[in-house]
Amino acid sequence: MEGVFMSVPLLLRHVVILGGLFCIVLFQGCSQNLPVEDDTVTIVFKHGKIAGNATPLELLIKRFEAENPGIRVKDEPLPATTDEQHQFYVINLEGRSSDFDVLSMDVIWVQEFARAGWLRPLDGIFPPEEREEFFEGPVRAVTYRGSVYGIPWYIDAGILYYRKDLLEKYNLPVPRTWTELISAVRKIKEKEDGVYGFIWQGRQYEGLICNVMEYMWGNGGGFIDNGGFHAMRQPNIEALAFMRGLIVQGITPEFVTTSVEETTRHIFGSGRAIFMRNWPYAWNIFNRKDSPVKGRIGVTMLPAFEGREPFSTLGGWQLGINRYSRHPREAERFIRFLTSYESQKTLALTIGYKPTRKALYMDRDLRTQQPFMVELYHIFERAKPRPLTPYYMMISQILQIEFSSVIAGIKTPEDALSAIDTQVGYILRLEEN
Ligand code: GLC
After folding, report:
1. Tens digit of pLDDT for each residue in 234-247?
2. Domains by residue range for the chain, with CATH
3. Partner of 202 for a Cys bridge, out of 14, 99, 256, 358, CB 3.0 to 4.6 A?
4. pLDDT tier at 254 (50, 70, 90 boundaries)?
5. Which among 71, 104, 69, 68 has a CA at the least distance from the CA of 89?
6. What are the pocket residues of ligand 1 if the criterion is a CB atom closer than 6 Å to any ligand atom?
7. Pocket of ligand 1, candidates 82, 111, 278, 384: which has the most ligand atoms within 8 Å of its Cβ, to mutate?
8. Chain segment 404-428, per-residue pLDDT in tens
9. What is the pTM of this model?
10. Cβ(404)–Cβ(416) under 8 Å?
11. 117 C-alpha vs ligand 1 centroid, how far in Å?
12. 114 to each of 46, 121, 306, 431, how far by Cα in Å?
């Protein structure tokens, strides 16, 4: 009996060895017959359409492929506005689609997507020590219940673009306050035919919220008061009334009520406006060789209300991995590559995506080519986030409708703000339960 038992491990060993040999033979036999491409994994990368020239991103992807033989990246751009992209992801991720592996996410979505279980946690490839090298705002935005679900790719904050040449021609200072901006618009418009004053994003969409919040925060307002949500506050009423006033007084043309980033970028970029609020990406496009405003524009922080400090809305995009991806390891390599120091530097110099890695603001090449990097660093550090909650997009739908009705002159600020309190209060109670 003992002898029989003794021989079992030996037998097993033989089985294992033979099995292994069989597998090797089988594997080799198979791989010899397969076309080479079958060893290659293709990952699909979804991101918003790049304004201006997309070639620099395509070149970066080629470099990644060269450095990572065996991985191909299919670049699949989505429409430019955040709202349209959000819709795409919700439909596809809800349906557990594995058609894409890497996705670029707006700073306001990560909480929602993480809670829904649509993203792979990335703690392993984005450890706490490394997070400290990034701006704090975006890192907070990708953190949900102690884990990270994205790596910040580029950062955004609202800034003021101005026509340096026109301010110089009329001997006017770069406006530090709204009063100065309004008076500069009046003076220049008196003399210059057919030029618009101050343009911004006023269509009923997410960008409008970013704009409105800047006036509210800049006026000492916002939604959180005494630890609770309160929209109906005096500084908020004044902020909305001020924005509507810009249109009524002709400082801002009526068409902003239908404008998004790219609409205003085109108008300002063709030399038809004096001031514009937008994100930093536009600067690179304005300074391209063929740009009518090349060398004639400046950027600075948004103006302030008298006696107050200006605040910009924090924006930006993060790379994450679809929970249903069949190639998570390859996807991880790719997002590590795109968020690296070198890739962020390339994208900052070419497309104008501003780095989320703080060290890049000390980079000599970047500072030489884009001297306003130093000022931008401080703007990004102080930029304020929109509410960090998995329910943000529900809140956003309400804010969009109400803000838009004030900007279009249909509702008073008071009516809109009290409607917001009622409806958002309902959502926040959902969150508590
Ligand atoms: C920019 C910002 C993003 C914001 C969007 C609004 O893309 O990066 O955070 O939500 O604009 O239009």
Report:
1. 999 999 999 999 99
2. 41-156+315-384 (3.40.190.10), 159-313+388-432 (3.40.190.10)
3. 256
4. very high
5. 104
6. 82, 106-108, 156, 206-207, 210, 261, 279, 315-317
7. 82
8. 999 999 999 999 999 999 999 888 8
9. 0.90
10. no
11. 23
12. 17, 8, 41, 15
